[in-house]
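Re: beginner question about structure tokens

> Can someone show what the tokenized structure looks like for a real chain? I only ever see the sequence side.

Sure, here's an example I had lying around. Input first:
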Amino acid sequence: MAMNKLFTIDFKHFYKNINFYLAMIGIVISLLIGYVIYSYETKVIELNFSRDIDLKVATLERELLVRVEVLFALQAFYDNSVTVTYDEFQNFTKVFIKRHPGIKALEWAPKVTHEQRLVQQYKGYRVEQPFIISENNLPGKMVKADNRSLYFPVYFISPFLGNELAYGFDIISNPARRKALFEAIKTDSAVVSDAVTLVQDDSNTKGFLVFIPVYEKNIDNFTERLKQTKGMIIGVFNIAEIFKASLQKNKAIEMRIQLFDVTNEQSHLLYEEPKTVNDLQNNILNYNKMLIPFYSRQWKIIASPSLAYFAKRRTWMPYVSILLSLLVCVFLIEYIYLISRRNLELMDIRQQLEALVVTDALTGVYNKRYFNKNSEIEWRRAIRQHTALGLLMIDIDHFKLFNDTYGHQLGDVCLSNVAKIIMKT
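And the corresponding structure tokens:
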């Protein structure tokens, strides 16, 4: 009976504190729901970011290929012309330069032997700018080229304004450009150079050159092909301008995009836009995307979102879900509170009924029903624990005489007083 009583008290304690337990559980569940939705939303933003970069990369690839196609058009122009004059070159190229930002210059560099240089077969087509085969000495400074057996000087250049320094510049005087030029002749294909500092610009602007050879006739042998080379069509491209022009069609905001040249497993930064982003969230996402091979080069994009990129794409859904969950918990707690209070009332009534069944109505002590039930329990416990079992029987002397003399009411009072004294002891 003592254990039942203890269990009943604990059960009542649980009912009385159920609101607190439910409130704690509700808060935890609400926060967990909010966290799950927040994490899912983050993954969606990351996926959309990678798709944005894929789209930007595709746009950049298309813009690069379109600009190289300009050189192939110029190659076809030379292949189908006996001679090309300065005016014809200018008229043919100016439309392309106007339509495609990032083309710094389109150039024609004929092959010139040292003998041809000595007899001055190549004279300037501009009276105000005499033709001198030159090479780069210092940034922005041109000097007369040293004697070599072969030269590829820039003879036609469009536009001329802003590219004056390139006029007469011997392409093979620069090791990187020399390598790309001969590679184009060797492979009979377009070749993209390493990133170079443009001789047309004294601000260390990075660019790249594309070389496409033009022949008197095409021969498979490299040595013979070099002899048959008429000259080289060269496209000078500004990386920053092409990059910006391609991104304007699919504008990049709240992110940093870096362009790397990873040819031959070496990584060189070609350009980044913008130069600085103060709140980059690199720990969330740093997306790498290889461009399709750009002729002889392999380029790669690395993009990093900013905190602002994520913030502008966040919704209120995680916070709304937390609020709605808390509201549901409030209603649930109120409902369970009403049920628990009703259960407590029923429990009290049940205890009162049980007390009426096992107690004597007059004296308040346990009755024979209780004695019969618990005597068997105590008897088995005594046997199990090898203990003695005592039974005390109390009788009131001359109670019948007292009851007949003073009446039954006082007799009942007498029994009640005796029961109270016994229960206290």
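Each token stands for a local structural state, so reading them left to right follows the chain. The CA atoms of residues 379 and 385 lie 10 Å apart.
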